[in-house]
Amino acid sequence: MARVPWRPLLAAGALTTTLVTLTGTAAVAKPDPHLPRPWAYGHQAQVGRQHAARVLAGHGRAEEDPSDETENAAESAAQYAEARTAPGVVAPGAYSAAWAQLGSLPRVGGAWDHVTGLPYDADDPRYRDIASNSSGGAGRVSGRITGLAADDAGFVYAGGADGGVFRSTTGGGHWTPIADKLPSLSTGDLQLDAKGRLWYATGEANTGATSFVGTGVYVLADPRTGQFQPGGRVGGAELESTTINALRFAGDRVWAATGRGVWTHSTTTLSGPWRMEFAPNPDYLPGGALDADPSAPYKNIANDVAIDPTDPTKVMLALGWRSGDAYNGFYTLQGGAWTRQTGLGDLPSDADNVGNVTFARAKNGSRYYAIDQSPLQLATNPDSALQGVYVSATGSPTGPWTLIADHVKLKNSGSALQDPGYQPGIQSWYNQFLQVDPADPNHVFVGLEEVFESKDGGAHWLTPGPYWNFSFPCWDINPAQQTGDCFATTHPDQHSVAIGDGKLFVGNDGGVYRRPVRGAVDSGGHAKDWTSLNDGTIDTLQYYSVGVGKDLKTGGMAVSGGLQDNGQSIKRGKDMVMGSNFGGDGGDTLVDPNNGCNIAAEYVYLAISVTQNCAVNNGSWTVDPSKATSFGVAPPDNALGGAGARFIAPFGADAKNIRNWVAGGRHVWTQNKGFTIRDPKEWKSVYDLGEGHVATAVVASGGTIYAGWCGPCNNQGFTRGIATGKADGTGWHQLDLPVDGTLPNRYVSGFDVDPANPKHVFVAFNGFSRKWTEGPGAGVGHVFESTDGGAHWADRSANLPDVPANAVKFLPGGALVLGTDLAVFYRAPGAKSWSVLGKNLPTTAVLQVRTDANGRLYAATHGRGIWSIVPGKSEGTDDV
After folding, report:
1. Which of 478, 540, 585, 608 is least surrounded by CB atoms within 10 angstroms?
2. What one-character-per-residue DSSP string does 486-504 give?
């Protein structure tokens, strides 16, 4: 679930005459090195120093401290997974069963409108306030791309982390979705085989956890014109509800490195089951004696497969959990049994130093390359988790391998990551790709946080895709003041790569970028020729939230939303390009419905900032701090990191008074200044949820508050509860929620309260029911109703598919809307059963639903952007 440390963000939007520009007298002078840089830059440096200090102090693995932002990707992913799996693990078949249920439901309402189907500019000059990443150099962005494939005829295929597959027929750009008919849009890998068929492995595996599980592998015989179909699945259900790191081809077989070991299948006969080749700890697989063990999801992780170019029967497997386990290592088939391989030369083979691994082979078979992330480095190296980059000059997977780069060598190649605690490879358990130029076996590209390149087999390195431009002398917050060698770069956090038609394509947390394979670089080794391919037709943006308010200056509605690693987006009423006014990971969002420029945006762990002018700023705050228009107002729980709040923590306003806010960490916090709050001390703690407990959902109406919580939040003793009380601190108590099936022992994901009666409340539960969740007290149902303030509850799930539910919303007149991991569902006033709401909404997780002042409903999806619909239009019909 990724998936992350602090990174540059996006911004966009066409300038209007009402907005401040960076021309004429508004331009700011070039800052000297001692003047402030954007918050993102300084914040990352501070985090790096804290991370280094913790590791050097011997406090164990960095990931054990969830406040360490070098582990944000892990924390985000883990918590996304927890919501869907706790109190146990999900059995294979859960998503397929829910998909089948979905197809049997009636459909009401018209077509959804794609709100964010337009470009999103990370460097929009309108939004250069203190909390923005604008001017970092990433340009136009989209969401995380975890699979890429390209041919030599200009066809490019990109897979979103939870957005499905897009096709370009023009060498990138002008994208068309081609996988929207599948039950899973989570991308693990994309590969073109020798016959030109496109293979789509579902189930993103960047973090080795269970957050973006898929439904198997699909093949498209005519990728240039066709679309993936459910009937194109390879094999049976063997690879359902797992993740797939890589597909590799050898002879007439395809190898799949998955979260449940290594599997193979014929490439000529696509029917018949997948064959399990090797799982180091089979007792932990579904159906095994230890499948309910809390560590089961981490016991059989396969990262990649290397195949001898001279003999496809000679195969080496790379297995291992990024944080270390006894089974971590390389395996070859010896005497009919998979055996740990040693004696690989410089490439380590011990469990402590084999973690996340990626292989790449030269087209002519003369070279093999590898990246290795080390669990030991993750635990002890304050600056990087990277063990190294290696080459096998014989082309054999068993080597001997030679070290050609470590984090120090890459740091000195032009990297932007120079600060202690955050240097190349710090996230090598999350960021990895490897690609060899098919025309030159000594020309290799490495993706970590940045893009690296060697033209001489690893003797020398460049950084054509630095993390951002903030750390370079050429940078200035005013683009007119930047020197000519400060060129556009890519978004950070690299995940996928392909070469086709003489061009290099890279996929990262900001989408897809392209440059010539033999591209030009400046004197610092930074590319001069990156092109963003995120033109707005590929919307893989991963929203956690959405907020909507009237745009008083430009007309229409201003739509904001918090995004994975792409900050807070904002689309003003007449924008043709979106902008980003807050950087980093964007969490929950609160927008004044009567003034869309009154915005409260969360970074992570309740790091809330407010603005009252949409954060429009030309960057003059760098020389005059009083000109900043964004203000940090985090409740005190933020200082405790993961012990004080969830990674994406809930907050909102009272339904009856926009000035009265509630936020949930370990404590329930309130404040009554609304968007004029400027001091974090103005938050008041009205209830302590208890040691080890953190809020998962909050709602307030007329002074009555409900707060859902968990702690522990994973399957190691999972506990959940609901507390309720008044905003003034009176009447607080924990509701009696016995684990007896009355309410499920699963993650409390959302509330909404009847505007006419604060004791009338609905609650949504995440996860799957006990049929699929192998854990204590999982219960059944996803939506429950109380009319007495939570003393008693009734299951209102009725005919809903058994799928994680994320958000519930009352609509005027008594209708109810539910956002889930599959669709948005609608229950008409007075009805008991549910229907699918609207047409053409992609099948991806809907994490939040909100309405604007006109009653239009907005859905924040975690993989395909924001969509809207008028929910009451043409009710009751089957196709309207």
Report:
1. 478
2. ----PPS-EEEEEEETTEE
pLDDT(756) > 60:
yes
Distance CA 852, CA 809 (A): 12
Check: CB of residue 618 under 8 Å from CB of residue 135.
no
Which of 756, 644, 665, 660 lies closest to 708 in space, CA to CA? 665
Q: Which residue has the tokens 């004197």?
A: 523
Quote the DSSP letter at residue 102.
Answer: H
Helix, strand, coil tally for the chain in percent (to 5): 10, 35, 55
How confident is the model over 481-516, as pLDDT tens digits? 888 789 999 999 999 999 999 999 999 999 999 999
Instruction: Enter the DSSP assignment of 542.
Output: B
Closest among 513, 519, 516 to 495, alpha carbons compared: 513
Is the separation of the CB atoms in 95 and 803 below 8 Å? yes
Q: For 212-263, give the DSSP string.
A: T--B-EEEES-TTT----GGGB-SSSTTBTS-EEEEEEETTEEEEEEBTEEE
Model confidence pLDDT, tens digit, residues 55-75: 877 754 433 343 344 455 667
Query: What whole-number distance in Å separates Cα of residue 783 and Cα of residue 278?
Result: 41
Query: At residue 282, what are phi and psi to the nearest 5 degrees?
Result: -65, -25
Q: Which two tokens stand for residue 570?
A: 């904002």
Per-residue DSSP letter, 611: E
Place of tokens 């507390």: 723
199/190 Cα distance (integer angstroms): 6
Residues 6+ apart with CB under 8 A from 404: 388, 389, 390, 391, 454, 457, 458, 459
Least confident range of 366-380, 436-450, 767-781, 821-835: 767-781
Contact yes or no for 199/217 (Cβ under 8 A): yes
According to DSSP, the residues that pair with 331 across neighbouring strands are 317, 340
By C-alpha distance, which of 638, 568, 552, 272 is closest to 560? 568
**Distance from C-alpha of 368 to C-alpha of 393, rounded to nearest angstrom:** 7
Q: Is the peptide bond before 375 cis (omega within 30 degrees of 0)?
A: no
Token pair belonging to 369:
């390359």
User: Measuring CA to CA, how many Å separate 652 from each of 468, 549, 660, 750?
Assistant: 33, 14, 9, 12
Phi, psi of 71 (to 5 degrees): -110, 15
Which residues sit opposite 708 in a β-bridge? 697, 722
Q: How many CB atoms lie within 10 A of CB 400?
A: 15
CA–CA separation, 52 vs 67, rounded Å?
13
| Pair 451, 457: CB distance under 8 Å | no
Q: Which residue has the tokens 């080597």?
A: 399
Contact 294, 776 (CB under 8 A): no
What pairing do the DSSP bridges indicate for beta strands 107-111 and 835-839? parallel
N-terminal to C-terminal alpha carbon distance within the chain? 35
How do beta strands 651-654 and 630-632 pair? unpaired
Residues 829 and 754: their CA atoms lie apart, in Å, by 13
381-406 confidence digits (pLDDT tens):
999 999 999 999 999 999 999 999 99
SS3 850: strand
Question: 429 vs 401, 420, 488, CA distance in Å?
Answer: 21, 19, 26
- Under a CB-based contact definition with an 8 Å cutoff, are residues 202 and 212 in contact? no
Distance CA 122, CA 138 (A): 6
The separation between CA 39 and the C-alpha centre of its own chain, rounded to angstroms, equals 22
Helix (H, G, I), strand (E, B) or coil at 653: strand
Distance, in Å, from the CA atom of 873 to the CA atom of 846, rounded to the nearest integer, reads: 21
Give residue-wise pLDDT tens across range 287-310.
899 987 878 888 999 999 999 999
Residues with Cβ within 8 Å of 524's Cβ and at least 6 positions away in sequence, in order, are 414, 472, 485
Alpha carbon distance 158, 152 (integer Å): 15
pTM: 0.93
Q: Would you say 24 and 480 are in contact if contact means Cβ atoms under 8 Å apart?
A: no
Asked whether 71 and 770 are in contact (CB, 8 A), the reply is: no
